[in-house]
Amino acid sequence: MVFFSLFSTALSSVFYGIIITAAIMALLYAVIKALSKTITSLSIFYITGVVMGILLVIQLSLMIGAFQAKEAADSAEIYLHQLLENRYGTVGAQDSQRIFDAVTHEYPIIGTFLGVADFSGHNISDLAASMHSTIIEYLDSYIWHRIGWTLGIIFVGVIVVMLFDKPNANLRTSRSALSSSRHEGRRARTGSHQRVHRRR
After folding, report:
1. Quick one: DSSP state of residue 39?
2. Residue 23 burial (CB count, 10 A)
3. What is d(CA 167, CA 65) in angstroms, rounded to the nearest whole number?
4. Cα–Cα distance between 200 and 193 in angstroms, integer?
5. Taking burial as the number of CB atoms within 10 A of a residue's CB, which of 3, 35, 83, 193 is the most buried?
């Protein structure tokens, strides 16, 4: 039961991670192509794109999994309130871990991010809220780390591709166009001289 729950959650996380990655890659392709029309013809462009795409799928899938764990944490707080109803006193280290294991058994996605819990010294009546706030705080930090890695991967990928761009390609193109226009100008002047000579 736990395996299938985690498997379905992992599949949905990867699926949405791929969708978001595809959208990001399409946007980056459009932006980079607008900056340089020659860069998309380079092999390094596609190699970097594949590597960056894989890394983005990993980071975004983990981030989506963390969001799903946050949703589970809200349900876990209600579950804890029901589990600890009519219980009083102070929680010890072993008791807090036992209670947390019961939460991760009921909501396995939380256990993939947090495995050990020490809420010793907390009052049982406050344990559900304390555990919920701790889980949410950790997952928020985890999500921000994934966002930072995602932005870092995009930044490094774009820099690598732009460094391998052919800076002289546009210059050669403009020189070729200029040379062509000069050649056409010379031909036009030669033709006009010939016409004048014939008139004489």
Report:
1. G
2. 10
3. 42
4. 11
5. 83
- Digit-coded pLDDT (tens) for 39-73: 878 888 899 999 999 999 999 999 999 999 999 99
pLDDT in tens, 156-175: 999 988 888 765 444 444 44
Sequence-distant (≥ 6) Cβ neighbours of residue 12 within 8 angstroms: 64, 68
Burial group, residue 69, by CB count within 10 angstroms (0-12, 13-18, 19+): buried
Alpha helices by DSSP H, 39-123: 43-83, 93-106, 108-111
pTM over 0.85: no
Measured torsion, CA atoms of residues 95, 100, 106, 111, in degrees rounded to the nearest 10? -150
Percent of the chain with pLDDT over 90: 36
